Amino acid sequence: MSRLSVLDDKVAARATKAFGSMPAFYLLTLYGLLPLALPSAQDTLLYWSNCVQLISLPLLMVGQNVLGRAAEQRAAETHDAVLDELALLRALVAQQAEQPPAPATANPTTPKGSAMPDRPVDPHLDQAAQAAALTETHNGPTEPGEQRLLAAQFGAPNSAGVYGAPAPEGNPA
C-alpha cells in the first residue's frame, strides 16, 4: 500500500469513529434544530446540511470498509490461533491414548483391613447386635455410651429395639 492509501484509510477510520460518537450526535441534533431558532437562515442552513451529507456519506462508507477489513483480519488471526490450539490438543489426546492406563488406587476412606462388603441388615437383630455389626464394618457408634444417650433423649427403645419409634398398633411398647 502506498503512503497516501494508508493516510486515506486512517482519515476515513477516524472520521467514521468521530461521526459515530455521542458528541457528534448532539452537535448534529443542535444543527438540525437551528432553523427553529433562526427561521430567516433556513435556506443557508439547508445548503450547508446538504454539503455535509455529500461529503460525509462517502467518507463514512470508506471508513466502514477500512474498519471491516481490520475486523476480518482479527477474525482470521483468531481462527488460525484456534486451529493451532486444536492441533496441540489432538496431539495430547493421541499421546495419552498410547499410554497404558494408571493402576487403580485404594479408596483413602476405606479402613485398613476392611473390604467394606455390601452388608444387608438383618431385621431381627436387636440394638446391641446392630451396634456390634456396625462396629465390625468400622461404622460403629459415634459416641461412647450411645445407648444411654439415645434413651435419655428419646426414651427406652420399643420392642423392636428402636429408640423414639411409635408403638406398633395394638401392641404397646
From TrEMBL:
The chain crosses the membrane at residues 24-41, 47-67. Residues 97-124, 153-173 are annotated as: Disordered. Keywords: Membrane, Transmembrane, Transmembrane helix. It comes from the Bacteria. Residues 97-111 have a biased composition (Low complexity). This is DUF1003 domain-containing protein. It comes from Kitasatospora kazusensis.
